[in-house]
Amino acid sequence: MSDLARDPGCIQPPGFDLLYEQGPCLVVAKPGGLATQGPPGIDSLEVRVKEFLRTRDRKTGRVYLGVPHRLDRPVSGVMVLARHVRAARRLAEQFQARTVLKKYWAIVEGTVSPPAGTWTDYLRKIPDAAQVEVVSTEHPEARQAVLSYRVRGTDGRTSWLEIDLETGRMHQIRLQAASRLHPIVGDAQYGAELPFGPATDDFRRRWIALHARSLEFRHPMTREVVRQVAPLPPAWRPWHLVDAQP
User: Fold this and answer.
1) Would 126 be classed as within a structural domain?
2) Residue 13's CB: how many other CB atoms inside 10 A?
3) Contact, 103 vs 163, CB < 8 A?
């Protein structure tokens, strides 16, 4: 049981959900539209978590927070963070070794067929752009991207996918879905036509229907297996494909 779970009176911090805390290991749920990290003076998950820890623990000096992985700004869901360097390094090693199990939920445009399968592509980052593209295996900058999926529901206009991510490339799920003519709902950057989430004129605050649903890893100090699930944000409620899901 986590330290957090032992405290029934624990107050949730503003701006994110604290799902688990044990020793130097934190698991949080990032809201969509919020950067994982950013330059000084820019709001981000890292800034919010540090400020929460500083206030809660009454720290006066520098607060360390290790960020061993990231979620794209428009993506919501579960993330693991570390409160000291050794824990951060051990978590980063698990991500590099691909031993962390990552499950995502997505709503995409159209009806995905077959109802389950594996997508394998080769991607490259477009120079001087926050975007990736599919390239041939012979391209010198090609990096393999692999995921498996199953369709959990469809209404003819959209499909609800459960995705197991085997590699962790930039914008991987977003591009692999879009390249098959099934862009993630709300992801105008990769061709989506249907909107998602709170309406805003600030494109940086826009959400897409991609949610890091669960994360399974070994605690960096105890080596105990930890699995945490991030509840769906309110923006998912209008999508009746996932009506009954917490």
Assistant:
1) yes
2) 16
3) yes
Looking up residue 110, the CATH number of its domain turns out to be 3.30.2350.10
pTM, two decimal places: 0.90
Strand partners, 18: 28
C-alpha span between 131 and 175 (Å, rounded): 9
The helix (H) or strand (E) run that includes residue 120 is: strand 116-125
Residue 152 falls inside a structural domain: yes
* Residue 167, domain extent: 17-242
- Indicate which residues carry an active-site annotation: 72
Measured between alpha carbons, how far is 126 from 111 in angstroms, rounded to an integer? 29
> Can you tell me which residue has the tokens 């890893």?
217
Task: Supply φ then ψ for residue 57, to 5 degrees.
Answer: -95, 5
154 lies in a domain?
Answer: yes
- Dump pLDDT digits (tens) for 70-109: 999 999 999 999 999 999 999 999 999 999 999 999 999 9
Contact 84, 64 (CB under 8 A): yes
**Number of independent structural domains in the chain:** 1
Report the amino acid identity of residue 159.
S
